[in-house]
Write a structure and sequence with these properties.
alpha/beta; TIM Barrel; eight-stranded parallel beta sheet; two-stranded antiparallel ribbon; 10 helices; globular; NAD(P)_OxRdtase_dom_sf; Aldo/ket_reductase_CS; NADP_OxRdtase_dom; oxidoreductase
């Protein structure tokens, strides 16, 4: 592991209920057992202050242990978990189980992990609003929703999701999707940014080589400059640190445009 401390960006975005969400977070999908504890601990040591987990990841206990043992104050970390829609009718029970595993009395963001069928989204969303009002979740949002479903739950409750977490990368960039969320006051958060061939794409690799950066750093920086939340994941401590080391450079306008264009290619 390198000794140089990563230059971690401190940029945040404002959310519906007054919270501020770091644009850079650490994702924990597919991390289990000791790997989950070690990787989350490494992320916190590197300077990440935003952790993303979910009920179906089955690692909330490990994330909670890493956070509790990190020495980082709970109030300094933005903590997200997600509820699967098959827990409809048991939403608050599910959240309380998550809180116990995470060793905290609240999460900073609670998401519906993917859409339910039929009219189920509105019913689940009402339970989410109840959780926010009870202080169990400071902000509430959705994941894998399109804008029509965002509008559906907003209309049903007059409470709009603070965040929509979707698969996102330069290869999936869609200006209309980004603009549609901004018009609604919904923060877009991207997952799987470093998957799907992005790290090997020749345009991304050329920009990275010219900038003296890794392809992963270029992709993460692209998210930040768009104001899109990004949650890279790794089990390797050096890569975890490298992915966070993106505060001291910016991508030129022409590079941003070239990366945006990959979503149309």
């Amino acid at each position: 592991m390198t000794d140089t401390a990563p230059r971690v960006p401190d940029a945040t975005v404002s959310l519906t209920n007054g919270g501020r969400m770091p644009l850079l977070g650490f994702g924990t999908w597919q991390l289990r057992g000791r790997d989950a504890v070690r990787a989350t601990s490494a992320a916190l040591a590197a300077g990440y202050r935003h952790l993303d987990t979910a009920t179906i990841y089955r690692n909330e206990g490990e994330v909670g242990r890493a956070l509790a043992g990190s020495g980082v104050p709970r109030e300094d970390v933005f903590l997200t978990t997600k509820c699967p829609p098959d827990r409809a009718g048991r939403e608050l029970e599910t959240l309380r189980e998550s809180l116990a595993l995470l060793q905290t009395d609240h999460v900073d963001l609670w998401l519906i992990h993917w859409p339910a069928g039929g009219s189920g989204n509105a019913d689940i969303w009402r339970a989410f609003v109840e959780a926010r009002e009870a202080g169990l979740a400071r902000e509430i949002g959705v994941s894998n929703f399109d804008t029509s479903l965002v509008d559906e739950v907003t209309k049903a409750t007059e409470v709009r999701p603070a965040v929509n977490q979707v698969e996102w990368s330069p290869l999936l960039f869609d200006a209309d999707t980004l603009a549609g969320h901004r018009a609604r006051g919904v923060v877009l958060e991207g997952y799987s940014a470093l998957r799907g061939g992005t790290l090997a794409h020749p345009v991304i690799r050329e920009i990275a080589e010219r900038a003296g950066r890794t392809p992963a750093q270029v992709i993460i920086r692209w998210h930040l400059q768009h104001g899109v939340v990004v949650i890279p994941k790794s089990v390797d401590p050096d890569r975890i640190r490298s992915n966070a080391d993106v505060a001291d450079f910016t991508l030129a306008d022409e590079d941003m445009s070239a990366l945006d264009a990959l979503g149309r290619s």
